[in-house]
Amino acid sequence: MPDVKRKILWSVLVTGTALASLSAMPARADDPAGTPPAAPAAPAAAAPAAPSADLLARGEYIATAGDCVACHTAPGGKAFAGGLRITTPMGDVVSTNITPDPDHGIGKYTEDDFEKAVRHGIRRDGSRLYPAMPYVSYSGMTDDDVKAMYVWFMHGVKPVAVTPPVTELNFPANLRITMAVWNLVAGSVSPETGDSATYDKMRRGRYLANALEHCGTCHTPRNMMLSEEQDSYLAGAPLLGWYAPNITSSKTSGIGTWSEDNLVTYLKTGHVAGLSQAAGPMGEAVEHSTSHLTDDDLHALAAYILQVPAKEDEAEHSPRAQFGQALDVPDIRSGELTRIDKLDEMTGPHIYDANCAACHGGDGAGTSDHYAPSLFHNSVVGSAHPDDLIMTVLNGVDRTAGGLHAYMPGFDHGSDVQRLSNTEIAALVNYVTSTFGSGDHGVTPDQVEKMRKQLPKTP
Amino acid sequence: MPSEQDLSADVVIVGSGVAGSSIANELARAGISVIVLEAGPRVDRQHFVDNFRNLENKPSYQGPFPCVPWAEHPPNQITPNKYLHTTGPDAEAYQQVYLRMMGGTTWHWAGCAWRYLPSDFELKTRYGQGRDWALKYDDLEPFYYQAEVMMGVCGPDPAVEDLGSPRRQPYPMDALPISYAAEQFRNLIREKTPYRVVHEPQARNTRPYDNRPTCEGHNNCMPICPIGAMYNGSYSVYHAEAAGAKFVPNAVVYRIERDSANKRVTAVHYYDPEKGSHRVTGKYFVIAAHCIETAKLMLYSADEQSPDGIANSSGHVGRNMMDHTGVQVTFISGDKALWPGRGPLETNVIDNFRDGNWRNERGAYLVHMVDDNQVDLATALAISKGYVGRELEEQIRYLASHTVRLFSHNEGLADPDNRLTLSATYKDALGIPHPEVYYKLPEYTVKSCEHTRGLFKDLIGLMHGTDEQWTPGYFPQDHPAGSTIMGTDPKDSVVDGFCRTHDHENLFIASSSVFSSVGTGNITLTVAALALRVADTLKKELTHA
Q1: What is the pLDDT of residue B4?
Q2: DSSP string covering B215-262
Q3: In this complex, which of A333, A335, A354 lies closest to B49 when CB atoms are compared?
Q4: Pick from A337, A410, A420: which is nearest to B64 by CB?
Q5: B216, A335: Cβ pair inside 8 Å?
Q6: Among A167-171, A215-219, B23-27, B448-452, which stretch is predicted with the lowest mean pLDDT?
């Protein structure tokens, strides 16, 4: 399943007025997007002695914490060979091959080239990367960690001789110079210094959250100039259909009621009974990245996140995971059977009963082992933003972490299990949030249709 | 309703069950144009689940599927059932039920996905009984695997539990975990008998597979898997449609048209529900309409050119009707509680009587320990014993946890006298006659059933059983086969080893109707494998043409 995390920047970049102001800016005469790759540089320096196992292991760990694989791997494709196609209103962004193949990947990159791409968004040929690549976040990485990652990509990753399709965006986003201008505005942060492995807990947590895991890329809302609003750090933002929730320390709008252990469990397994579970982009972040972090790092990351200043969300007045209770199951049986060709749209309670109750229970309590989570005391159902619930119904859950493959089928037009209409999904979601969550949020069929269009395309 | 000019394709398929839809999927993915004509309507899971929840008689697995008048199917297994009319000494043993709608009868089945044994294809050669198939196990092996991957079949590691059908690849998924009841049963068989209990290969997910979830053991595979963990033909319909195959629901095919030489089929004709007639042309035709309906259609298409029906120069269309007619008993174990009903319905089988030299005189059989919820039966039994109040509740609990249900699949044999004909009395809403079947259980199967009864009595004794309830007579298993039998000689068979009719070079049949012997396992996987082999043949002929 394609990772959609890196779509967000695009969703803001290619919509709204900000884009017009960007593209109106001058200095596009030297547009590097149209120029061929730079003439072959001097061949990379003769291979030095094989790198130490420690350095390779560190590089792999840093690359995992930075979650490179999620974006640079196509569905069913070879790791890091790129080719993931991200549909935006302006065209498709396709991730690149970052295996060490010299012709198709980054095999000719020197350490310096690599550093420029990772921390500054500049390709080896001098052109600008699209900021789907979170280099603004990565600019906080230490020199040593960039070096370790470089060594691992060159020696620990298998070269793949495949060139993914070229990204072709519509005007003006097709002008990579636009990105140079954007960079002037977005800027970058100074790299951390010293040995990141020796930081104290809170500094290590901040480093993990910002320079590596780039949490803010999704969870921090953006300003008119598309930069993260630092005074709303991690306060929640829409994410191409999904909603990356407020994870500040607010007790009502954020995750201020969570313990450090709760958050560690969430990041390790994607699921905390009675609180929440990860699906969509966060499910993938857990699967590919956070579930592979050491316990010490998870605790550092959790401790740092839990002290982020509270930011309130006007729509959320009560902790998302504290709504609802088991339903005293009403008898909705009519005793009447319908003929097999009568496929009339059903009402919320019947849609729930026929499609959800088998796993989540007629009372909504889920299974006793929590494989199918309870729908009450559940952040996704209790949220004032029903986006993630709608997207979960459409898209399902497919997350492997902590030794468990959590799976729920989607109910969109491509489902083999059951295809629900926009009207049915709206009725279902309104029934579920009013029965087990924070109330009926008035989801409409049109809203569901818009979100359906955001689903990843099946290859 | 599609416009008439749309009604032409390279391959026209009649029937959208596992056979028809999987052929459509394979062909469409190879770029071949396909039209599938389905007599019944489009359907979906949520309405069946809703019907199941509304259904009073939960074990009635035809119950949640009230049919449409233009494509009737049997309402249940009783006699008379107002659709499939059976006659003869063992009429009640041939009350086969099936479904006519998009996706076919695998909407309700138990997911049992056996490969046949090599000996099943050579019954005559090895044991002097019945008939040989016009193909061997090895011819079908690659297609068995293809079918297992398509359906998502879980099964045991052959190195640990060899089921007797050689495999080149492991099962696509690991075998099901053993339920508590099955574990008790396994222990008993291991400790007190010379027999063994094996994992039944099952077309259900033991891990997320093909965008469907893992089986959670809801225990109502029949009549409807509520979560889509078990395979049914609707997935192949969806996959074929995504690949470009066109499905026409509510299209009741009633006539098969041939050229003047009567060598090639040129078109099929169907009625819509208002009896408007439509003609569909193609280069190749596949009838994949279930054993009963396939033979019915071929007989009903009789005309001046073929007064006995299509592809029927042998006179064998509609003959050789077989099943795994079996024996069933429930009883109350006097040993520890088993608590059946937690997990899929059918997962554990005694396979010691599946093959042996005795097959020269009596049929093979499988014994299923059926792991279904027994509260219905326990309640009826407790009430009949006169319990009331608190004691009634205790008795229901005790009986439901101690009930054992066993049934067998016994091997039928091709007998031309067991015959499907068109009813002279009963017609459906479109004026098409109902099917009628004469059935007399072959002596070979009777002997097999006697042997099974003996085994069941021994097992009841070993479990200190009481309150035996034997299903009277014989138990139909809904595995009809043989009505367009396969063979090498066009004089006594309808199709060849590739399921092509001897009489019409561009007409294929994909159904259990081609089985030459009914085999020693549930029929569906073999139906799917034969269908995929038909698709392979068609792909070769159409792409090389």
Answers
A1: 59
A2: P---S-TTT--SSS-B--HHHHHHHHHHTT-EEESS-EEEEEEE-TTS
A3: A354
A4: A337
A5: no
A6: A167-171
pLDDT > 90? residue A2: no
Residue B439: DSSP 8-state: -
pLDDT in tens, B273-328: 999 999 999 999 999 999 999 999 999 999 999 999 999 999 999 999 999 999 99
**Residue-level pLDDT at B303:** 96
Domains of chain B, with CATH numbers?
Answer: 7-544 (3.50.50.60)
Helix (H, G, I), strand (E, B) or coil at B198: strand
- Quick check: B340 pLDDT over 70? yes
- Identify the bridge partners of residue A399 per DSSP, sorted by sequence position: A406
pLDDT tens, B185-223?
999 999 999 999 999 999 999 999 999 999 999 999 999
pTM of the model: 0.92
pLDDT per position as a tens digit, A183-192? 656 666 788 9
Rounding to the nearest 10 degrees, give the CA dihedral for residues A358, A362, A365, A369.
-30
With cut-offs at 50, 70 and 90, classify the pLDDT of residue B503: very high
Contacts of B66 in chain A (CB under 8 A): 337-340
Contacts with A, B 387-426, CB within 8 Å: none
**A343 neighbourhood in chain B, CB within 8 Å:** 42-44, 47
Candidates B523, B20, B454, B530; CA nearest to B237 is B20
DSSP label at A456? P
Helix (H) or strand (E) holding B366, with range, is: strand B365-370
Interatomic CA distance for residues A338 and A132, integer angstroms: 50
- CA gap A377, A273 in Å, rounded: 9
Which amino acids of B are annotated catalytic?
A: 479
Preferred mutation among A331, A332, A341, A343 to probe B, highest tally of B CBs within 10 A:
A341
| Structure ipTM | 0.95
When pLDDT is cut at 50, 70 and 90, the band that residue A173 belongs to is low
* Interchain proximity A409–B214, CB inside 8 Å: no
Strand ranges inside B400-487, DSSP E: 403-410, 419-427, 433-438, 466-470
Of A63, A25, A153, A42, nearest to A101 by C-alpha is A153
Q: Which residues of A touch B216 (CB under 8 A)?
A: 358-359, 367, 372
